[in-house]
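Fig. S4 source data, part A: sequence.
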Amino acid sequence: MRVRSPSGLGSEELSCRYSTPYGLDETSSIVGISVVIIQNAPVDPLSDLLEMVHAKPACSVRLEAGGAWSLRFRPQSCKFNVVRKGECWLVVGNDQRHLRAGDCVVIKECAEFVLTSDPALEPVDAALAFGDDALAGRYGVGHDVDLLGGSVTFGPDGASQILDLLPSTLVIEGAATAAAPLGWLLDQLDSEWRSGKAGSRAACDDILRLMFVHALRADFESRGENALGWIGGLSDPPLAAAIRAIHADPARLWRLEDLADVAGQSRSTFAARFRARVGATPVEYATGWRLTIAASRLRAGRESASSIARSIGFLSDSAFGAAFKRKFGVSPGQYRAKAGPRATSEAVLTADPETAAA
């Protein structure tokens, strides 16, 4: 095998001969694989959070409908839908939105909604449209409307950090400038769904994940200075610099003066501005992010709570246990137990009694 990496390019070329059942074939061709490695990627708090809360989009169903029709959906997770063809109405409570081809919709977790050709029609349970095929529904007469639907699930304690920032119903119109990348991704999603090729289901899930991220980005960017929470902080350059610094070095014991220096502001101005936009003090945000990282690693089950505490900057197990319980309501050991038997069994040999019981 030969490995060559051009200096500074972050690219590697891997080559190897392949063998036959009778040994190495010296006359066989060299198999070359080019690998591009992205180094020193910029700090991205939204990507960090999506990873920490285990956001997992999955492309689930396709719906074709025509004529006069109305279907009621009762989702158990956050729903993400895109209109591929035609138009219809979305009804959530008293809110009615007219959807057209290219529009994308994110509906918060467990929010009942109706898709219909006419809001005046009485809806029926959507399960009736999927009686013959759980993945491809048909309802009504003809094929006026074509929708692709997916779900987005989150870890046990992560959903609120994303969903609390969203309206109950988020619609990104296909005609909007921010939706341009979504249009291309929608074409790829439709192509993969129709192809039936090997790996198409996995490809659809990955494309849907990209569409979900673009939908979040479009909504956050559209709010501009009106955005609140940590995403509001990212729209304010001085605060964004401080938030990115926290994400870049979460184990550091950040002090107010350190973060004010990063933001280029006085401590009083920075503290007041951060709390007004983000809803927490800078130090509270830094501690909360460290604990979010700890929760994710506890769920993974590969490290002891004591080891995690030290790696994210806590000076003692008892301090970590107390801070963790304030945020999540249970001790690190209890939290790990809730995550399931795998997380518990993988860490049992290295568990620290003091941290587990804290």
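Fig. S4 source data, part B ends here. The chain is about 40% helix and 25% strand.
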